[in-house]
């Protein structure tokens, strides 16, 4: 076993964990934290990151492969390639600084050094920005030069509208910075223009503070976006079942953002799956169980999307369901389940919830009820690695403990923590380290992962009608207590969003 891999609990490595009680006894928080510690060491040794296509990601893949090999799973590294962007945002005057940035999906390519031209900004007061939403916003601004950079603020309309208007006005590059009107609209924003090649000029993101600096009189900057091809891997592991034509899948993305080690996002889901895999080693399930550790999720759900696209229709038809675990140990957590039955939120336009997904949601809700843990719904948005599965009609659900959305006083009363702070204050930052964690949330959710995988490893009949068997032992699963319904807005608590087109 690789250095840092969690040892099996006494007795767990020699017995078959074929009941809920045996399985949950052998799935331990200490083991999950050992895996997270190993991922932290990998990041520390590789520039503080485990981002896809970096040495830190390659070492993370090797670590997962080593743990699975030691646990007796059949695992493989499945290669995929994708087009990516390399971006730069550098202010030259009146101050000199290089800013953290990223290219918007749908951007053009280019290297532009020139004048920064603010477009209808709202930097004070309520900061109610509609910057760049109308062609009239560009009236009176001089974009006649060959290296003009439009500086626009998030707000009111889609990022694509802003970028297209800037291009039409004659801008050679675009910077869209965060709005600054709320705590969750201060940091770096990098979104999508809603498609490929939406504009022919480079479009990059910035934080509100960076936007303020770039808006200064006499500001000049360099904006650069290069297109390149990257090569990466997903890790796919299987435990053979008696019915190999009915596959239960669970997945978590393994990569971090470039800014940090990603120990909650998503070392939490990745480590929990590893711990459950170790506890299942000697189990001979009724259905084949397949675990996935996805690459390039932070680049736009690329690893999971590529893997699903690589499968024939016959292979996709074998997949009974997919479980997604993306951020399950947030330090200022609440427990959330993807709202497949739409009891709190209607699915967004364009998202079709496959039949059977609500049955998966009920299993997670029943587990929280069994543990006496209050829970809530999170929007079934498709904006994590389950997207490619639901797009192919595969029933899905998953767990989430929150990202950059701010906890309310009502939620503090129910789950504790601190109202007025984000569920994960270190979301997509360098401080998403081993310390960025809540032990209780991670322990409960790792057990929830094991409980759901165990349930469906024996039977998916409630999901897809394929008969199975009851999990051995005398165990009564309670009816769900029901979500707390603490979200009033359309976001549904799910800000872990790699597909938002609107600003």
Could you please describe the fold and organization of this structure?
It is a single chain. By secondary structure, the chain is an alpha/beta fold. It is 27% helix and 20% strand. It has helices at residues 20-26, 29-44, 55-71, 159-169, 208-214, 267-279, 302-310, 313-318, 357-371, 387-390, 409-415, 439-458, 461-464, and strands at 74-93, 97-99, 110-118, 149-153, 173-177, 203-206, 220-239, 243-253, 287-294, 319-325, 336-338, 376-378, 396-400. β8 (243-253), α6 (267-279) and β9 form a beta-alpha-beta unit. The longest helix is centred in the C-terminal third of the chain and has 20 residues, at 439-458. The model is unreliable at 1-8 and 497-503 (pLDDT under 50).
Number of beta strands:
13
Number of DSSP helical runs: 13
Averaging pLDDT over every residue, what do you get?
94
| Radius of gyration over all CA atoms, rounded | 23 Å
Overall SS class: alpha/beta
SSE order, as H and E? HHHEEEEHEEHEEHEHHEEHEHEHHH
Q: How far apart lie the N and C ends?
A: 46 Å
Query: Main sheet?
Result: 13 strands, mixed
Low-confidence stretches: 1-8, 497-503
% residues in beta strands: 15-25%
**Envelope shape:** elongated
Helix percent reads 25-40%
């Amino acid at each position: 076993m690789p250095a840092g891999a969690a040892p099996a609990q006494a007795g767990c490595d020699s017995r078959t964990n074929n009941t809920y009680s045996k399985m949950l006894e052998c799935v331990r928080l200490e083991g999950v934290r050992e895996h997270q510690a190993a991922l932290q060491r990998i990041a520390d040794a590789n520039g503080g990151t485990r981002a896809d296509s970096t040495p830190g990601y390659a070492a993370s893949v090797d670590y997962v492969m080593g743990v699975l090999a030691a646990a007796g799973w059949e695992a493989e590294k499945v290669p995929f390639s994708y087009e990516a962007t390399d971006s730069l945002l550098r202010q030259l005057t009146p101050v000199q600084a290089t800013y953290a940035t990223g290219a918007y999906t749908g951007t053009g390519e280019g290297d532009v050094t020139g004048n920064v031209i603010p477009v209808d900004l709202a930097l004070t007061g309520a900061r109610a920005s509609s910057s760049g939403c109308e062609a009239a916003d560009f009236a009176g601004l001089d974009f006649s030069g060959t290296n003009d950079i439009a500086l626009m603020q998030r707000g009111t309309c889609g990022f694509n509208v802003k970028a297209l208007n800037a291009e039409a006005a004659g801008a050679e590059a675009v910077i869209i910075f965060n709005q600054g009107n709320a705590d969750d609209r201060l940091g770096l924003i990098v979104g999508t223009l809603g498609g490929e090649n939406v504009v022919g000029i480079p479009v990059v993101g910035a934080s509100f503070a960076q936007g303020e600096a770039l808006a200064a009189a006499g500001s000049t900057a360099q904006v650069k976006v290069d297109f390149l091809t990257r090569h990466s891997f997903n890790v796919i592991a299987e435990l053979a079942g008696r019915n190999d034509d009915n596959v239960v899948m669970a997945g978590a993305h393994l990569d971090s953002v470039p800014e940090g080690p990603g120990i909650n996002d998503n070392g939490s889901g990745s480590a929990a799956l590893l711990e459950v895999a170790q506890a299942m080693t000697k189990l001979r399930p009724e259905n084949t169980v397949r675990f996935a550790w996805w690459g390039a999720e932070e680049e736009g759900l690329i690893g999971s999307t590529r893997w699903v696209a690589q499968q024939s229709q016959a292979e996709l038809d074998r997949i009974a369901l997919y479980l997604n675990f993306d951020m399950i140990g947030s330090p200022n957590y609440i427990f959330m389940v993807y709202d497949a039955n739409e009891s709190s939120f209607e699915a967004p336009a364009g998202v079709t919830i496959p039949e059977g997904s609500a049955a998966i949601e009920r299993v997670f809700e029943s587990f929280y009820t069994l543990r006496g843990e209050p829970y809530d719904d999170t929007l079934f948005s498709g904006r994590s690695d389950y997207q490619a599965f639901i797009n192919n009609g595969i029933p899905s659900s998953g767990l989430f403990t929150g990202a950059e959305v701010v906890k309310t006083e009502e939620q503090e009363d129910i789950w504790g923590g601190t109202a007025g702070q984000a569920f994960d204050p270190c979301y997509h930052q360098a401080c998403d380290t081993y310390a960025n964690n809540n032990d209780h949330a991670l322990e409960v959710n790792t057990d929830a992962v094991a409980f759901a995988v165990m349930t469906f490893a024996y039977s998916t009949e409630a999901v897809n009608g394929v008969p199975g068997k009851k999990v051995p032992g005398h165990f009564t699963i309670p009816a769900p207590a029901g979500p707390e319904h603490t979200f009033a807005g359309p976001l549904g608590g799910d800000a872990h969003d790699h597909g938002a087109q609107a600003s």
